[in-house]
């Protein structure tokens, strides 16, 4: 790893109060990404990945819901962001990394092992079809997976009462905000709160959108697999 990347990782460790093993584990994640041309991301160069994956994932720690969570499921985990980043940062947090693509969850499981993480489990499947995960989680996370309304529909059944969806988002257009608010109401989720974050200095328009489960998920949800996307609320 270059001195520049090592210095950036160390600075992120200080910013987020990480201990040394966490910083080392995040360095391993960057090494694995850099070495694997088949990793499911276009951002593999550590000078860029340290910001776009590690710093972006760590920005989740600014949400109290994530700082206080004991259980978290990352829906559509892909290369394990934010799942692996948050699992490294908070070893006491039990993390499930879920994706519909088997190759991706296998990659995440192997990478978690190389990072020395004991608190990551992977699930191959669709969020809306995972009945064993219902009502279990303090937090559902998702980055770059689906519009807000669809994410709320994936998240609501998986959350315990009082749990929260934390979605990594860029700029939300009016349509996504409006449909998100409507979906939240129908699903017993609270009005989505948007929290601006600047994970790296040049980052523009990054935000965490948080919605807390206020009521039991109404009957009829989750709908059939794929329906949330095909016929958004
Ligand atoms: C663009 S990738 C984002 C990956 C990662 N979160 C990141 O930000 O780098 C979206 C991922 O979501 C997964 N996905 C889409 N719909 C899903 C669903 N209903 N349940 C679980 N995973 C899903 C896809 O297979 C894909 O790996």
TrEMBL record:
<keyword id="KW-0698">rRNA processing</keyword>
<keyword id="KW-0489">Methyltransferase</keyword>
<keyword id="KW-0808">Transferase</keyword>
<dbReference type="InterPro" id="IPR029063">
    <property type="entry name" value="SAM-dependent_MTases_sf"/>
</dbReference>
<keyword id="KW-0949">S-adenosyl-L-methionine</keyword>
<comment type="similarity">
    <text>Belongs to the methyltransferase superfamily. RNA methyltransferase RsmG family.</text>
</comment>
<feature type="compositionally biased region" description="Basic and acidic residues">
    <location>
        <begin position="224"/>
        <end position="233"/>
    </location>
</feature>
<comment type="function">
    <text>Specifically methylates the N7 position of a guanine in 16S rRNA.</text>
</comment>
<keyword id="KW-0963">Cytoplasm</keyword>
<feature type="binding site">
    <location>
        <begin position="127"/>
        <end position="128"/>
    </location>
    <ligand>
        <name>S-adenosyl-L-methionine</name>
    </ligand>
</feature>
<feature type="region of interest" description="Disordered">
    <location>
        <begin position="173"/>
        <end position="233"/>
    </location>
</feature>
<dbReference type="InterPro" id="IPR003682">
    <property type="entry name" value="rRNA_ssu_MeTfrase_G"/>
</dbReference>
<feature type="binding site">
    <location>
        <position position="143"/>
    </location>
    <ligand>
        <name>S-adenosyl-L-methionine</name>
    </ligand>
</feature>
<dbReference type="Pfam" id="PF02527">
    <property type="entry name" value="GidB"/>
</dbReference>
<protein>
    <recommendedName>
        <fullName>Ribosomal RNA small subunit methyltransferase G</fullName>
        <ecNumber>2.1.1.-</ecNumber>
    </recommendedName>
</protein>
<feature type="binding site">
    <location>
        <position position="76"/>
    </location>
    <ligand>
        <name>S-adenosyl-L-methionine</name>
    </ligand>
</feature>
<dbReference type="GO" id="GO:0032259">
    <property type="term" value="P:methylation"/>
</dbReference>
<feature type="compositionally biased region" description="Basic and acidic residues">
    <location>
        <begin position="202"/>
        <end position="217"/>
    </location>
</feature>
<dbReference type="GO" id="GO:0008168">
    <property type="term" value="F:methyltransferase activity"/>
</dbReference>
């Amino acid at each position: 790893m270059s001195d520049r990347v090592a210095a950036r990782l160390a600075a992120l460790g200080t910013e987020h109060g990480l201990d040394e093993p966490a910083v080392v584990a995040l360095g391993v994640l960057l090494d694995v990404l850099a070495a694997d041309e088949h990793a499911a991301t276009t951002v593999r160069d550590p000078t860029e990945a340290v910001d776009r994956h590690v710093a972006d994932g760590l920005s989740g720690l600014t949400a109290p819901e994530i700082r206080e969570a004991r259980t978290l499921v990352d829906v559509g985990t892909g290369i394990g962001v934010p799942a692996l980043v948050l699992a490294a940062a908070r070893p006491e947090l039990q993390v499930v990394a879920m994706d519909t693509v088997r190759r991706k969850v296998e990659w995440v499981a192997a990478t978690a092992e190389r990072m020395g993480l004991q608190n990551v489990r992977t699930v191959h499947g669709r969020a809306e079809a995972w009945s064993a995960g219902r009502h279990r989680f303090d937090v559902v996370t998702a980055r770059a997976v689906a519009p807000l309304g669809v994410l709320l529909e994936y998240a609501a059944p998986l959350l315990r009462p009082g749990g929260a969806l934390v979605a990594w988002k860029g700029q939300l257009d009016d349509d996504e905000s409006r449909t998100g608010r409507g979906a939240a109401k129908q699903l017993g989720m609270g009005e989505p709160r948007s929290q601006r974050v600047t994970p790296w200095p040049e980052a523009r328009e990054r935000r965490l959108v948080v919605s807390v489960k206020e009521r039991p998920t109404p009957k009829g949800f989750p709908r059939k697999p794929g329906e949330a996307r095909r016929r958004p609320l």
